Structure formats: structure tokens, C-alpha cells
């Protein structure tokens, strides 16, 4: 990698810290971080990094700039950045890390000559990464200008990651799929834990009870077609058991479970008949 290239990051949440970690490992010089947060341990341990509050946009122009803020801030940040160094953006690659939005959010900088793109890791960053091995085999969705894509591919190759190309107009669907496979799965597991709590089972034991079932489902998902991996009463067409479930849930004070169980059950029947 090119050690002479400089990097700036706007936002230093979980994804921003990951970008900071592996760009430094790749040999790039992390020069500037814009943040509204207190400097993290990662930053404190690194010398010669300029830490600016996001309202202070007077900075040295980097070669590569990552915007890793929440999605609803990206476009506004691009507009603010475009008010500075207007004659210097031609040599800068600018990325945002949103999964749902494409690089059109960066149009104010593109209009000044910057090459822009989006780069999104299909990984849950619940904790800070401490090793490059944690990024191995992770898929990254990349789109944007050719120069941006070329650089992103080199960076992802360095992390031993993989690239998935999604059409610009399909990014929202791509990200919705990611949310359903991750965040929504956890929401379902929370409902399962709540149902076990109704049975008098304590949370730590409930997790232990569910883990073999969850792991077995993941293993089946990895090795079989969905229709073959599907198990349980919907796969068997056991409507007496399903009815018994529904009657039990109707008696609960909170009724979140019933519509979710029913909708997912209807889809399970479609999966069974694929």
C-alpha cells in the first residue's frame, strides 16, 4: 500500500474506528479525525493525529476521506466540506459508509472534482475490531466512480475481504436484506427470550437453551437450500400445534408476538412450498 497517502475520517463510531484501524494497518497516514465525541483509546494511543470537532472544518486536504457518520448526516456533511478547499478536491477520494444510500449523497464534493464512492461492510461491529483477521472474508458493497472503486478494491483485498457489486438504484434493498438477516434476527431472538421468561426461565439460561437450536439453524442454512433447512410445525404442516401456539400467545398481556408469529408463519409456508 502507499504510505504517502493521507486519510481523514468524519465520525468515529464503530465503523469509523474500524476504518481507522485497518487503514493504519495498511500503511496509510491517518492525519485528521472529525468527531463530536471524546477521543477514543485508539486515537489517544496514536501520535500526530489532528482531532477536530465537526463544526471546525478548516483542515489539511487528505488524499482519502471517509464519512462514517449516521446516514442522515452524510449529505449535510458533504455540503459543509464543499465550502472548504474548493480548489483542492480534484485529488481526493471521498467515501461514505452507508449501506442504504449510494454515492450521490457526495455530489457537492464530486462537483468540485472529487472522485466519490460508497463502501459498506456486511459485518456487525458490536465491538471494536482488534485484528485484521476479524475482517477476513467479510463482503463489502462498493459503488461509485471508477477511481474510487479501484481504490476500495485494493483496500478490501488487503483486509482479505470480498466485494459484492450492487446496482446504485438497488442499494436500499441490499441494505434492507442485511438488516433483516442481522438486526431483525436479534429482534426475533429477543421475542423468544421474552416468551421463555413467561415460562419462568431466567435470561442467562434462556440463551443457553436457544443457542444449540440457533447454531443448528445457521449450520443448516449454510449447507442446505432454505426449503430443506426449514424445520418445525410450519415445515411439517402441523396446524394443531400452530393453533395451540396462537391460543397461548392470545392470553399474554403483550400481544407483539401474535402478528409477528403469524406473518413469519405465512412466509414459512411459502418457503416450504418452494
Account of the protein in words:
The protein has 274 residues and is an alpha/beta fold. The protein folds into 2 domains: 6-168, Rossmann fold, CATH 3.40.50; 181-272, N-(1-d-carboxylethyl)-l-norvaline Dehydrogenase, domain 2, CATH 1.10.1040. It is 47% helix and 14% strand. The protein has helices spanning 14-25, 41-44, 71-81, 107-110, 146-158, 171-181, 183-198, 203-223, 226-229, 233-236, 239-250, 257-272, and strands spanning 6-10, 29-34, 50-52, 64-67, 93-96, 115-121, 139-144, 162-164. Strands 3-2-1-4-5-6-7-8 form an 8-stranded mixed beta sheet.
In short:
It is built from 12 helices and 8 strands.
Give short descriptive properties of this protein.
elongated; 8 strands; 12 helices; N-(1-d-carboxylethyl)-l-norvaline Dehydrogenase, domain 2; 8-stranded mixed β-sheet; 274 residues; 2 domains
Q: If you consult CATH, what is the topology of the largest domain?
A: Rossmann fold
Mean pLDDT: 90
Label the overall shape. elongated
Structural class from helices and strands?
Answer: alpha/beta
Furnish the topology, listing elements before pairings.
Layout: E1 6-10, H1 14-25, E2 29-34, H2 41-44, E3 50-52, E4 64-67, H3 71-81, E5 93-96, H4 107-110, E6 115-121, E7 139-144, H5 146-158, E8 162-164, H6 171-181, H7 183-198, H8 203-223, H9 226-229, H10 233-236, H11 239-250, H12 257-272
Parallel strand pairs: 1-2, 1-4, 2-3, 4-5, 5-6, 7-8
Antiparallel strand pairs: 6-7
